[in-house]
Design brief:
The chain is mainly alpha-helical and 173 residues long. The chain contains 8 helices and no strands.
């Protein structure tokens, strides 16, 4: 791929997100984006490229927040770092996040990429060990993401994230 192709694909992705932002849960309006079908072929390919962009952005934020996990004082530091990284990425790329959220049910390959992201969040936050079964790590990631979304939406209440996590991950009686 030439640099010209690379930049053209980036322009297509940006235009697609802008247009899809009108109704993020609907299929992407590829026919309205010149070159989208030519460069990507299908909605699924566009969504996979968008998920890759999101994951790249999020992982960059995570690296910035968690420079060295051994330097952290405890679990709260890791969770706080992941919280800051996820929230800053979600706020800066709100429309992209909404488009991806609206598309997970349409494409299994997109769900698998999202589950990889959830495992990355859970392990980085220190809530799961990478040696645990992937299904278990994914469950923890879903729980963490739900808390991130809930606490982001409910800015009036300032319950510390660690309190939510302790209640959520506590063994049931």
């Amino acid at each position: 791929m030439s640099w010209t192709d690379f930049y053209r694909r980036q322009e297509i992705l940006e235009a697609t997100v802008r247009l899809a932002g009108r109704n993020p849960a609907e299929p992407l309006p590829l026919e309205e984006v010149p070159g989208a079908e030519e460069h990507f072929g299908t909605e699924e390919n566009v969504l996979l490229a968008l998920q890759y962009q999101w994951t790249r952005t999020l992982s960059g934020r995570l690296r910035a927040e968690v420079t060295d996990p051994d330097d952290a004082d405890g679990l709260g530091d890791h969770v706080d770092a992941v919280t800051r990284a996820w929230r800053s990425a979600a706020e800066e790329h709100e429309t992209l996040r909404a488009v991806l959220d609206g598309a997970y049910e349409r494409h299994a390959s997109l769900r698998r990429m999202h589950e990889g992201e959830l495992r990355m969040l859970a392990v980085t936050a220190g809530l799961a060990d990478p040696r645990e079964p992937a299904e278990e790590i994914t469950k923890v990631g879903y729980a963490l993401e739900a808390l991130l979304r809930t606490s982001r939406a409910d800015t009036r209440r300032r319950t510390p994230m660690m309190g939510h996590l302790r209640r959520l991950l506590a063994p049931s009686a």
